[in-house]
Inverse folding.
């Protein structure tokens, strides 16, 4: 793992996410979120999880975001229309948003970091190799977590049917 | 070498950004996008702790989180479309009929 | 005074070799796409009982370069109401993802370039242990190029073409992935290099152990889904000239149009290259696979590309609802059946 790479990817992720939340144009929000997901996939590769990185691109950036894009285009929401948005300009800082964000962050980090101290990742080469092995993930998924896997398939079926029923035009 | 703390701080920052987005934005689609940011922050936590422990369980849970996020995004967007058809607006302030 | 070598700067011989290899692969892809322009026009012409381009260069081989020069000199138009940034970035996304997908495809064994290199150089840009999924991921990113092109042109023809094309690509990605999954089950690995090396050897001395003989239905499903993914005939309704003007790239001109064209051809090359690696034994041939494996690879890829072009000028176009019905109601169940049959085969044969 590399510290510089981590900082670059983390900076892209955080800046893109701030852009998503503060942009007035929903189209730009969707595009920036795709950039954020790409940087997150890079972070997963850094964590020796290439399968999760590729799954992130396929599922999140390649499928869910296309869905969002379709909805934004169909509802013709590409124009800016949100007067309450956090402004993107750094000169005028929306104090309400800023305060909320900093309070949340401070509380979270204070609680979390006070409990763990400084920790380094395990450097055991055998463990690292087993984490990035797709065979290991597949075995665990289909044996230890087989029940959750089957339930997930039912969940997807339910959401598919539900989405079609809800979005259907009433005649 | 980044430590576990680096990743946990990143996750905390992302989660706060997502939460701020959900509370402050008045556009249904942007609220859904902020929820996705929060889910991704949680994913980063799982994968990094899994790496810390040297097990594959973090990635398994991430797999399920992604699947559930996909299902929830599909239903959420269907609801957004249905709501938009009624009021022609995406602001949550327009859907206040149940308020007393 | 001791001499400074490049190694003192951290630049090793293998790094330079890799950079040269990346450059060679990139140029080869661009030249192949230019060659495809020529091949398409020639094959189309001979199918239609005429000769095709034969003036520019020997047998018209320099025709693609003439086309590119003409396109470069055209004015780069942009409709006024279009979203400028997305309008410009759409062809870039299409082309970048088309090139990126080729980065995990191995096209030869190891070579030392006749003893020039100290360590043998593997003929591929990179090899990750999830190579097949990388190709899948990059293909799903390619959808954005088309959707953004259709939408940012701010014209109803482009928008319709873009949405239809995106829906088509998403639908056929499912069958594509399931056909891939069946091959992965047979090979036991996601890395393309390992899948190819698993296909070495022959049965009874003359039938090579390619997966196409074990998976004929899978090969058919993969090629059909691949043709639909690259928006080629008979699945090219979204860019059909007669129906929608030119679909999602109606409003593009000069180099942006050339980029979309090139992206489409390079996507075809990638689908063919992956099909070769998965089903036709990659760079393995009857003899000398270690040294001239890349010749076998190129021959097989060109064969599949010829089939692509042949299909375009022979088969009539599917209507959009027929296309979607075929993808969901016929190809997807067939892919699932193929997967189940392959799983049974793997368990039964151990």
């Amino acid at each position: 793992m590399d510290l510089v790479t981590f900082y670059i990817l983390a900076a892209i992720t955080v800046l893109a996410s701030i852009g998503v939340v503060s942009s007035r144009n929903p189209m730009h929000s969707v595009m920036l979120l795709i950039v954020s997901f790409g940087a997150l996939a890079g972070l997963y590769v850094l964590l020796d999880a290439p399968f999760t990185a590729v799954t992130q691109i396929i599922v999140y950036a390649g499928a869910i975001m296309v869905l969002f894009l379709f909805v934004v285009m169909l509802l013709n929401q590409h124009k800016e229309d949100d007067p309450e948005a956090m402004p993107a300009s750094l000169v005028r800082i929306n104090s309400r948003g800023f305060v909320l964000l900093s309070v949340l962050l401070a509380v979270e980090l204070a609680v979390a970091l006070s409990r763990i101290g400084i920790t380094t990742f395990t450097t055991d080469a055998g463990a690292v190799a087993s984490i990035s092995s797709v065979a290991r993930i597949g075995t665990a998924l289909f044996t230890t977590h087989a029940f959750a896997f089957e339930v997930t398939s039912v969940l997807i079926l339910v959401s598919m049917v539900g989405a079609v029923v809800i979005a259907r035009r009433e005649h | 070498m980044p430590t576990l703390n680096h990743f946990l701080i990143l996750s905390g920052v992302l989660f706060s950004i997502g939460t701020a987005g959900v509370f402050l934005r008045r556009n249904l689609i942007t609220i859904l996008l902020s929820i996705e940011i929060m889910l991704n922050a949680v994913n980063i936590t799982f994968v990094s702790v899994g790496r810390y422990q040297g097990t594959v369980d973090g990635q398994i849970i991430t797999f399920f989180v992604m699947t559930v996020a996909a299902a929830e995004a599909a239903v959420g967007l269907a609801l957004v479309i249905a709501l938009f058809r009624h009021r022609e607006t995406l602001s949550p302030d327009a859907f206040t009929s149940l308020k007393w | 005074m001791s001499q400074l070598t490049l190694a003192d700067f951290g630049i090793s011989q293998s790094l330079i070799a890799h950079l040269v290899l990346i450059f060679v692969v990139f140029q080869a892809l661009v030249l192949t796409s230019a060659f495809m322009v020529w091949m398409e026009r020639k094959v189309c012409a001979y199918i239609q009982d005429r000769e095709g381009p034969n003036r520019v260069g020997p047998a018209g081989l320099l025709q693609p370069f003439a086309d590119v020069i003409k396109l470069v000199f055209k004015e780069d138009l942009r409709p006024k109401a279009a979203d400028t940034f997305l309008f410009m970035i759409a062809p870039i996304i299409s082309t970048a993802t088309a090139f990126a997908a080729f980065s995990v495809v191995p096209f030869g064994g190891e070579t030392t370039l006749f003893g020039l290199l100290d360590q043998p150089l593997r003929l591929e840009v990179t090899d990750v242990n999830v190579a097949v999924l990388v190709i899948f991921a990059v293909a799903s990113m390619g959808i954005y190029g088309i959707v953004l092109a259709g939408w940012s042109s701010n014209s109803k023809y482009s928008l319709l073409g873009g949405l239809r094309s995106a829906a088509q690509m998403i639908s056929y990605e499912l069958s594509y992935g399931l056909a891939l999954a069946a091959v992965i089950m047979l090979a036991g690995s996601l890395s393309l290099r390992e899948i190819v090396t698993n296909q070495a050897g022959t049965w009874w001395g003359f039938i090579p152990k390619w997966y196409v003989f074990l998976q004929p239905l899978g090969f058919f499903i993969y090629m059909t889904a691949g043709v639909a993914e690259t928006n080629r005939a008979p699945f090219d309704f979204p860019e059909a000239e007669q129906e929608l003007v030119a679909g999602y790239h109606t409003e593009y001109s000069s180099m942006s149009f050339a980029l979309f064209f090139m992206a489409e051809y390079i996507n075809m090359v990638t689908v063919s290259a992956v099909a070769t690696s998965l089903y036709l034994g990659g760079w393995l041939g009857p003899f000398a696979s270690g040294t001239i494996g890349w010749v076998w690879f190129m021959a097989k890829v060109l064969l599949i590309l010829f089939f692509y072009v042949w299909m375009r000028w022979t088969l009539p176009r599917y209507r959009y609802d027929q296309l979607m019905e075929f993808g969901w109601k016929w190809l997807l169940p067939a892919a699932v059946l193929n997967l189940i049959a392959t799983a049974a085969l793997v368990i039964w044969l151990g």
Summary: DSSP finds three helices and no strands in chain B. The longest helix of chain B spans residues 57-87. Residues 5 and 80 of chain B are 38 Å apart (CA to CA). The radius of gyration of chain B is 17 Å.
